[in-house]
Amino acid sequence: MCRFFVDSDVTIAKIVSSCLYITKLLYKVSKESCHVKTVDLTTGNVQRVIVALALPLVGSSLLQFTYSLVDMFWVGALGSDAVASIGAASFYIMLAQAIQSLIVVGAGIKMSQAVGKRDDELIQRYVRSGRRLNFGLGLLSALLLVSLGPTLIGFLNMNAPTVEHLAYQYLLVSAPMLLFSFFNLLFARLFSAYGNTTTAMRINATGVILNMMLSPLFIYPLGLGVLGAGLATLAANAVMFGFFWHRARALFDWEETVRPVRADYTEIFRLGFPMATQRVLFTVISIFLARMIGSYGTEAIAAQRIGLQIEAIAYMMIGGLNGAIASYTGQNLGARKIDRVHEGYRVTTRIGMLYTGLITLVFLVFPDVLIRLFVDDPTTIDIGASYLRIIGVSLIFASLEMIGNGYFSGLGLPKIPATISIVFTVARIPLAILLEPVLGLDAIWWSIAISSIVKGLVSALYVRLTKKEVTSLAEAI
Q: Is residue 32 part of a domain?
C-alpha cells in the first residue's frame, strides 16, 4: 500500500496543496447561500416536501458513508487489529454523541415548533441556550475520554495489548474532535429545523472530502497508521466547525440582545432526556455486546465493525427520513395542520420500507462479496457475512422504528420512542445469553435483529394509538 505513494509522482506537498485548494473551492460554492433561508414545510405536496427535505440529509449521510468505506479500505489494509482498535474506540465516541443528543434533540424539537409559530424571539433563545449547553457537555466528554480511556478500552476484554494501545491512541485524538463534532451535529439539526438541509449537506461535503484526502496521507506516507486516521477526522471536523459557525451567525443573528431564560434550558433537557437516555442505553448495551464479541477474537470485532459500515447503506436513507419527518412534523404541528402531519408519516413510511426492502435483498444474496471488499481474512469474512444476513432480516422494521422516532420527536413526545427502544434494547443481552449456547456468535446478531423487529412493530402500533392526541397537542402549543 505504501508503495503506491512512493512510486507515484504525487508528493506530500502536492497532496496537502490539493486538499487546501479543493476545500477552498467547496467553501466558495457553499458561500452562494450565505444567508440561509427558512423553508416553509407547511404548504405544498406532502411527498415532494418530504423528499426535498430528506434528500440533502441523505446526501450528507451518503458522503459520510462514502468516507467510511474509503477509510475502512485504508485502515483495513493495515490488518484486522487496526480495524478492531478503531471499532473498540468508536463505541465510546458513539456514547459521547449519544449523551450529546440530549441537547440536539431537545433544541431541535423546540426550534422546529418555534419556526412553525414564526416566533423569532423564541428561536433566538433556543439557539443560545442550546449552544451554551453544547459547549459544556462537549468539554466534559473530551476530558472524560482522555482520563478514563485505558479503563474504557480494557473493559472490552479483548486480551490484545497491541489492539488496546492503538484504540487508546485513537481515543486521545478523538477527544478534541468531539468538541467540533458536537457543534457540527447541533448546527445541522438547527438548520434542519428551519427546513434548510442543503447548507448542512454542503458543509458536510467539504469535511468528508477533506477527510478522504487526508486519511491516506496521514496513514501511509506520514506513517501514523490508526493515529493518522483519527487526526484526519479531527482536521475535517475542525474545518466543518468553522463553516457551520459562519453560516449559523448569518441565520441566527447572534448580535441581538435576546437572552435565554431558565425555562428554555429546562425545556431542552425535558424533551432531550428521553431520547438521550435511549441512545446512551443503546450504546451501553452495544458495549456489553462488544465485550461478548471480544471473547470470540479480534476477527469478530473487526467483522462487526465492517458489517456496521456496510449496514450504514440502509441507515443513510432511514436517517435522512428520520430528520425530515421530525422537522416536517414539528413545523406542521406548530402551524396546526394536523392532516399534513398524518400524511407526512404515511408517505415517509412507504419510502423507508421500499428502500430497506431492496437493501435486505442485497444483504441476503451478496454478503460475502461485500465483506471481501475490505478484508482478505477468511474468518473475518465468514463472520461478517453471517452478520449481514441476520441483520438484513430486520432492516424494514428498523425503518419503522426510526421514522416513528422522528415523528414522535416532532410531536414533542420523545418519551414514547425512548421507552420502546429502552425496553427492547435491554432485552438484547439476556436474549444473546439465552441463544449463545445454541448459536454461538450468531446469537448476538440474532438478539439485535429480533429486538429491532419488535421495536419497529411496536412503534407503528403506537402511531395508530396516539393519532387522536395530535389535535390536542397542536392546541397546547
A: no
Tell me if 84 sits within 8 A of 163, measured CB to CB.
Answer: yes
pTM of the predicted protein model? 0.67
> Once rounded to an integer, what is the mean pLDDT over residues 332-353?
87
The percent of residues in the chain predicted with pLDDT above 70, rounded, is: 87
Distances (CA, A) of 220 to 18, 56, 71, 164, 409: 17, 33, 12, 21, 44
Say how many domains are in the chain: 1
Range of the domain at 258: 43-476
Report CA-CA distances (Å) from 471 to 200, 226, 343, 348, 475: 32, 52, 14, 20, 6
Q: Is residue 179 part of a domain?
A: yes
- Helix axis angle, 120-155 to 161-193, nearest 10°: 170
Q: What is the DSSP letter of 157?
A: -
Rounded Cα gap, residues 98 and 198, in angstroms: 24
Q: What is the pLDDT of residues 58-99, one digit of tens each?
A: 776 776 666 666 666 777 777 778 877 887 888 888 889 888
Q: Report the alpha-carbon distance of residue 348 to residue 342 in Å, rounded.
A: 10
Supply φ then ψ for residue 11, to 5 degrees.
-90, 165
Residue 308: all three cell numbers together: 456496521
Is position 20 within any domain?
Answer: no
Per residue in 444-461, pLDDT tens? 999 999 999 999 999 999
Is-contact 153 87, C-beta < 8 A?
A: no
Structural domain contains residue 18: no
Could you report the per-residue pLDDT of 269-320, keeping only the tens digit for each?
Answer: 888 888 788 788 888 888 888 888 888 888 888 888 788 888 888 887 888 8
Say how far apart CA 255 and CA 130 lie, in whole Å: 16
* CA proximity to 290, closest of 89, 69, 81: 89
Helix and strand numbers (H, E) in the chain are: 18, 0
